[in-house]
Write a structure and sequence with these properties.
The complex is a heterodimer of chains A (292) and B (129). With 292 residues, chain A is mostly helical. Chain A is 71% helix and 2% strand. The longest helix of chain A has 35 residues. With 129 residues, chain B is mostly helical. A three-stranded antiparallel beta sheet of chain B has the order 2-4-3. In chain B, helix 1 crosses helix 3 and helix 2 packs across helix 3. The two termini of chain B are 36 Å apart. The chains are: A mainly alpha (292), B mainly alpha (129). The interface between A and B is medium-sized, with 17 and 27 residues.
Chain lengths: 292, 129
């Protein structure tokens, strides 16, 4: 086993632990904390489904992330003891397809959770009996939530990445060239991030009980997270461009594994850390007092 | 500044929106030049049809309470405070009351007045005014 391989297995183990153990457990702990501190009896609007359903959802999520973690360790054992990397990848190094493919699977439990959350909000809206609706009479503008400096930094990273890629490839621009492919990938991903940002900023209010302050705080966190993800993507693609001039092919698998970890931290980790439950106004989920 | 609408209230939703914007201007919670949310944002936040909010904005713009500045958005009109007092509905009702009184005085029956009114309104729609 080479030093590159040892390094990869350490980083890959960290990917398994971070995305399939640490982050899901933090989310579960948060769910547990909310349920204990704000029980269904006192905060019925927070739980539109029957109690048993939450236990099932929790169990399914737990099972999903543990299964994915187990799969990760099986893949790692296969890579160490069974797979012949010399013939598996054309360049003879550990293929980046391993951490990339597995990384995508690791995000599945979180997507499951997200879908479940959308369902909860839909139920909340259906059960919402209030006839009055409130809105802030002022526009939500991007710069109210994200500093112009951060936006400029994300844009600079994007342009910097393209310029570096062109520099690394002697300013060659031709259809099908790696530089063009990377630029298109980055532009497409950034467009998706912009769409997600616009949806958070101007989209429909999903949670009918959420206060303006909580929604603003959530929007601020999500938009900042999207900016950081865009910057991380640029940095990652710079490393891919640098691969051709600095001969980093042996580190590709390590880099993509780190990339997935950074994305997980910047999206899920950042949101969980910044959006403290103590800052949320849970009073809106209390039962309405008759005649109030 | 918060806007609250009652979806089961007797007053039409667009009228509630207009009344609250005008009240906010009169209370000076909204000052000339203050930006208002886009139609899409307000409709999304209040879970209303876009057309309802668009109608309210259109009538507020007609009354010079708000003004739209292209892509920059919608703002409170510089003369909004004095224009809020103008109620075109009340003016129309007062004029019609006088006219109907004159017609009755001249011997016209209510059904004749109603048919004449409907004819005038229909002609207006046909002319696309």
């Amino acid at each position: 086993m080479t030093w590159d391989q040892i390094l990869f297995y350490i980083v890959f183990a960290s990917q398994i632990l971070l995305l399939s153990i640490v982050l899901p457990r933090r989310i579960l702990a948060r769910m547990q904390h909310v349920r204990e501190t704000y029980p269904p009896a006192d905060y019925p609007k927070l739980y539109p489904d029957p109690a048993e359903k939450y236990a099932v959802s929790r169990f399914v999520f737990q099972l999903a992330y543990l299964a994915v973690a187990g799969l990760g360790f099986v893949i790692m054992l296969l890579m160490i003891f069974v797979v012949d990397h010399g013939t598996f990848a054309a360049d003879g190094f550990i293929s980046e397809a391993w951490p990339a493919g597995y990384g995508m699977v690791q995000f599945l439990p979180f997507m499951l959770l997200e879908v479940s959350e959308f369902r909860q909000f839909r139920l909340m809206r259906q059960l919402n009996t209030r006839t009055t609706r409130k809105a802030e009479l002022r526009p939500r503008r991007l710069v109210d939530f994200v500093s112009p400096g951060l936006l400029a930094a994300a844009a600079t990273f994007f342009v910097g990445c393209v310029v570096f890629d062109l520099y690394a490839h002697d300013w060659v621009i031709s259809w099908g060239h790696d530089t063009v492919q990377r630029t298109l990938t980055m532009a497409g991903t950034n467009l998706l991030l912009v769409a997600a940002g616009a949806w958070n900023l101007h989209g429909r209010k999903l949670n009918p009980h959420q206060t303006h302050a909580d929604r603003s705080r959530q929007t601020r966190i999500v938009l900042r997270s999207l900016c950081y993800i865009s910057m991380a993507l640029s940095v990652f693609l710079v490393t891919q461009a640098a691969d051709d001039i600095y001969r980093l092919a042996h580190l590709n698998a390590v880099l993509i594994s780190l990339y997935f970890q950074v994305i997980g931290m910047l999206s899920i980790g950042f949101t969980v850390k910044c959006f403290e439950t103590t800052d949320v106004d849970f009073d809106v989920y209390k039962a309405e007092v008759a005649g109030a | 500044m918060e806007i609250i609408i009652d979806i089961e209230g007797t007053e039409p939703l667009f009228a509630q929106l207009i009344a609250q914007v005008k009240k906010a201007v009169q209370d000076r919670s909204l000052k000339p030049g203050d930006a208002l949310p886009s139609i899409r944002q307000l409709a999304g936040d209040l879970e209303l049809n876009h057309k309802t909010v668009a109608k309210a904005y259109r009538l507020l713009e007609r009354d010079a309470v708000i003004q739209t500045k292209g892509y920059r958005g919608t703002f409170i009109h510089p003369d909004a405070e004095q224009n809020c007092g103008v109620d075109l509905g009340a003016i129309a009702a007062a004029k019609l009351t006088t006219t109907v009184g004159e017609l009755r005085g001249a011997g016209a029956t209510d059904s004749e007045i109603r048919i004449a009114f409907n004819t005038v309104m229909a002609d207006r729609h046909q002319q696309g005014v």
